[in-house]
Amino acid sequence: MKKYIILIFLIILFGLTYSFRKPLYNLYRTYLIKENKNVSLVTNNDYTRNYSFDYVSITDNFIPKNYQDLLNIYYTVINSGTTEFSFYCPDDYEECITDTDSLANSQTILSTINNFVHPFNSFKHLETSYDDYGKVTIKIEHIYNNNDIKLIEAKVNEIEKENWKTNMSDEDKIKAVHNYIINNSKYDKDRSDNNIVKYKSDTAYGTLLEGYSLCGGYTDAMELFLEDMGIKSYKVSSENHVWNAVNLNNTWYHLDLTWDDPITTDGSDILEYNFFLITTNELEELEKEQHNYDKKIYSELANNN
């Protein structure tokens, strides 16, 4: 009889333990191994932006309550330049893990968030892992390594010294960089048309140091100079293209170096200004197919007609 009572007791105990496994494990993590869920993000990264956008905002609250909070956490973590960070889904946000899984598995959303950070903090690969108890860990591999950054920054400083004058307006400085990049870089047609990869043309390295560029390279390169000028900007992307959004004198403009550096049949270099600091209406009058961007995400531009 005692055996049956013990067996029944063990079954009940196992059932209760299984039913309350999550709160019990949370108590274990909190009080026995002293795991602190009130996390904070500290970074000394030189490329962390200190401003927010309509789509994503910097946050110091890493206890999400909804999907937008998750977007803001991901932006803040990527923007910080860190390589690994963990936060916790609270019990009262029941869809947190499901929403995190949806976000983490959407390359479109992650790439969009990437558009709002400094190029040197943008990721090449991002991995999200989580357990059944609400711990979410983000691991990041960056596009630019330290050696690339050192070389690019030296080139940027050289270009600025040679092309910027003290009496120049911000618009004049942007135009000087626009002209330099276009005059010293060619569109990498072999890579775009035939997938022949000879240069890092999708990055600022290829544009500034190798003289070959794709739209991502033009855009990243321009972002570096805008950042040095203290001008708020981001990369705006459509399905097949990317260009710069620039906040100049409290107004947002489109800036597309790729389309101002057209490919010619005879291979000659042409410098144009059709896509230089233009409004949304002006952009749509010029070209709609490649510049068909999501105005809900890049709403700052959409509001400037």
Protein architecture, described:
The chain is α+β, with helices and mostly antiparallel strands. It folds into three domains: 1-35; 36-142, no CATH class; 146-302, C8orf32 fold. The chain has twelve helices and eight strands. The protein has helices at residues 2-19, 21-32, 67-80, 96-104, 107-114, 146-163, 170-183, 189-194, 204-210, 215-228, 280-286, 299-302; strands at residues 84-88, 123-130, 135-142, 186-187, 212-213, 233-237, 242-248, 251-255. The strands form three sheets. It has a three-stranded antiparallel beta sheet, with helices on one face. A three-stranded antiparallel beta sheet has the order 6-7-8, covered by helices on one side.
Strand content: 5-15%
Radius of gyration based on Cα positions: 24 Å
SS-based structural class? alpha+beta
Largest sheet: 3 strands, antiparallel
Reading side by side through the largest sheet, how are the strands ordered? Answer: 1-3-2
Rough shape?
elongated
Tell me the name of the CATH class of the largest domain: Alpha Beta
